[in-house]
Design goal:
The chain is of the alpha+beta class and 293 residues long. The chain has eight helices and 19 strands. The model has no long low-confidence stretch (mean pLDDT 91).
Length: 293
C-alpha cells in the first residue's frame, strides 16, 4: 500500500463479496471505508454470487484493466431438472424436466464436451451491451434480443454429485475471463436432454488472488500497486532509466531488458511500480500506464 500526495491511499483490495450485494454496492461501500471516490472493480459478480472481487483504490484503478483478463475459478451447484429466466436460482422457473434417471457418469460426460475453446451465448440478464444497451436492462423490460456467441475457454471443469441432494452437482470451473457459469450450467442441462440452472456460485480466485486472501469490504487491507501486478513479469530498473520511464518514453526491448510478450511491470530501485509497458513494434515497447511518483 502507498499514499498519494493528496493523502489518498493506493493499492489493491481482495474482497470476499457477500450475497445480495452488487459489485457497485461493494465499490460504494469501499469509497466510504477508504475515504476516496477513486475506487473501481475488476470482474463483475452477480448479486447472488459471493467470493473474490478485486478493488483498485486510488492510482491502482489504472491497473484494473490488467486484472480483468486473468483466469478465474468458480465453484457452485448445478441443479438439473429446471430452467429459469436468469439461468440461476434467482429467476423464475420456465420449464421442468424429469431427469431422475440421469447418472453421474452421464453428467460428467456431458460436462466434458464444454472443456476447451467454446462458443457461449451471453444470458439476457448480463451486463453485455447490444445496440448500446445492457442486456439486463432489456430483460427487465421483457425484451429478448439475439445475442452473438462469444469465444471463451474452459480450462478445467469437474462435476460431482452433492450428497443427499438428488439431481444437484457441485461444479468446479477454471475458465477465461468473460465465461458465464450460469450459461455453462444451463448448457450442460440441455446437453443431457433436459435443463438445468446454477445456484450458490462462489468465485474462488482471479489469477493468483485467492479466496483465502480475501476480506470483507468492511475490513479490507491493501496490497501495493507492484503486488497488484504479481501475475505479470516484472523488471527492476535504476534511477536513470526511471527518469525515461517516468516521462513515458518509448524504449527498446534491450534497454528495458525484458523478454516475452508482456505486459511488464516496471519497478524502481525501491520496488515501487513506475509504469506498465507493453509491446509496441518489433523490438520496441511503450508505456501502457505511467504512475506519477
Amino acid at each position: 500500500m502507498s499514499e498519494s500526495e493528496g493523502g489518498t491511499v493506493d493499492g489493491l483490495a481482495i474482497i470476499d463479496k457477500e450475497a445480495g450485494w452488487t459489485s457497485h454496492d461493494v465499490v460504494a461501500k469501499a469509497r466510504g471505508v477508504f475515504g476516496t471516490r477513486k475506487v473501481g472493480h475488476a470482474g463483475t459478480l452477480d448479486p447472488d454470487a459471493t467470493g473474490v472481487l478485486l478493488l483498485g483504490v486510488g492510482r491502482a484503478t489504472r491497473l484494473l484493466r490488467f486484472l480483468t483478463p486473468l483466469r478465474k475459478r468458480y465453484v457452485g451447484q448445478l441443479v438439473l431438472g429446471a430452467e429459469t429466466t436468469t439461468l440461476d436460482a434467482a429467476g423464475e422457473v420456465t420449464a421442468v424436466y424429469d431427469m431422475s434417471e440421469v447418472t453421474p457418469e452421464q453428467v460428467a460426460e456431458a460436462a466434458s464436451t464444454f472443456v476447451g475453446d467454446i462458443l457461449q451465448v451471453p444470458p439476457m440478464v448480463s451486463a453485455v451491451k447490444v445496440g448500446g444497451r445492457r442486456l439486463h436492462e432489456l430483460a427487465r423490460e421483457g425484451v429478448e434480443v439475439e445475442r452473438e456467441a462469444r469465444p471463451v475457454t474452459v480450462h478445467e471443469l469437474a462435476v460431482t454429485p452433492v450428497d443427499g441432494d438428488a439431481g444437484v452437482y457441485r461444479i468446479d470451473v477454471s475458465c477465461s475471463s468473460g465465461t458465464y457459469i450460469r450459461s455453462l450450467a444451463a448448457d450442460i442441462g440441455s446437453a443431457l436432454g433436459g435443463g438445468g440452472h446454477l445456484r450458490a456460485l462462489r468465485r474462488m480466485s482471479i489469477g493468483s488472488f485467492a479466496i483465502n486472501d480475501a476480506r470483507p469490504v468492511s475490513a479490507p487491507s491493501l496490497l501495493s500497486m507492484a503486488e497488484a501486478l504479481r501475475d505479470y513479469p516484472s523488471v527492476w530498473i535504476d534511477e536513470a532509466l526511471g527518469q525515461k520511464v517516468g516521462s513515458g518514453q518509448v524504449l527498446s526491448i534491450d534497454e528495458l531488458a525484458v523478454e516475452g510478450e508482456g505486459p511488464w511491470a516496471v519497478l524502481g530501485p525501491q520496488g515501487d511500480l513506475l509504469a506498465v509497458y507493453e509491446t509496441h513494434l518489433p523490438g520496441v515497447v511503450k508505456p501502457a500506464v505511467v504512475i506519477p511518483q
